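Protein Entry — a single chain follows
Next Lines — sequence and tokenised fold
***
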Amino acid sequence: DHRVLHSFPTRRSSDLVPMDDQFQVNDAATGTQRFAGLDMASDGTMVVVWHDAQASEIRARVIEAADDPLNFTNAEFRVDLDANSLDSVVSPSVKFSADTTTNDKFAITYSTKFGSATDTDVALAVYKLADDADGVEVIHTEFRANESTTGDQLGTVAAVGAEGDIVVAWANGT
């Protein structure tokens, strides 16, 4: 039985003093939750992403800075949308925009197999914080970010500039 972040996250002040106890992010209490990533906006809002191995999905949750770790404002949500990507989504990462005045855009990347592909590609989805059940508005649903489709594309990371430009990087496993 594993839960996201294996040793649950804890918020710490700038001088590294724990601000609260460790807390579980994912709703699932059984199965393997792995390959977690997180980023924090300048206002303290966090997005945590992970791979739910039991459901073979990339999941995420927006955690507001003021949230009680035992009672989150926002529901967790599924990031990968391709029904054909089952059993092939891994290595999620998340990055907030560098625009510290709005703190509202973030990108999630992960590796997946699109359609009937045999090699793993890089998927990118872009979101904006919103006032709804899961705390997000979809700007761009998942799409393939890589042009080369030979070999597995793994270890995805992204950066989002202040103007909304996105840079995605990964390793080619050929």
